[in-house]
UniProtKB/TrEMBL annotation:
It holds the Pfam family AMMECR1. This is AMMECR1 domain-containing protein. The lineage of its organism: Eukaryota, Fungi, Dikarya, Ascomycota, Pezizomycotina. PANTHER family: AMME SYNDROME CANDIDATE GENE 1 PROTEIN, AMMECR1 HOMOLOG. NCBIfam families: TIGR00296 family protein. Residues 69-102 have a biased composition (Low complexity).
Amino acid sequence: MATAAHCAYCFEVLSCALEKRQPLSFSEVEDLWDQYEAAATEEVGVPEDEIDGTLSPPPPAAISRILNSPSTSSSASSSTPSLSTDTSTSNSSSTSSLSSLPKGSARSKGVASDEKYPLFVTWDTISKGGHKSLRGCIGTFEDQELDDGLRSYALTSAFEDHRFDEISLRELPNLGCGVTLLTNFEGIKDPMDWTVGTHGLRISFTDRNRRFGSTYLPDVAREQGWTKEETMISLMRKAGWSGKPSGWRNVNDLKVVRYQGHRHELSYKDYNEWRNWVEVTGRTGA
């Protein structure tokens, strides 16, 4: 599944591209995120000097949020990828601030750095009130090594989603990043044989001698409050089909693939707190 470290790496790549500096490597980010979480875990325990009757300084704000804030698990924005053929949000969405840090990053959750996945990277603008607005979302259905795939699509979704202007440096503090790793692709004969909130859909069909295709990630139908039929019609509209809604089943050679995916989210604030911790502590990654 996607992890906070994956999102942190996307932020690292984007911020360094905008600030024209060299980013940490994927393995360094993973290792340093593990160290960061370990430091947070240590702060959760009772300090030895407190047992001796002396008080320790309070933990950093991010670590304090681990203790005091509930985790959130829903996404307020609909991550609708822009490309209709190989791009186009997951059965579960986890929002990571260190208020809800999952214990362990990619390696401790069983996602090896050298594993390959189809993936999508989503950028959202987060308002002061916490509302999310889609800022860019592009990915691929081709298996990607996480290092190359996350680096490539972090930048592609930030700079090449033609629905939006390129993300600028001044926007960084208001961004959130979501990473979705896709799994369990299954062709289905019945276009209704899928579950809202669990499955994403990829469709292709022919109409008037033209081939169409589009996709929605697993969270989209649930976030929009759509029925299955409304989702299918919207998918076909997204692909460019202009027929009557009642005629969606009548297109030629309709093929539907359902898939699953877990999306993880991280705010720039939490990425920046981790990055500052790296700088202040002088930690180095693998």
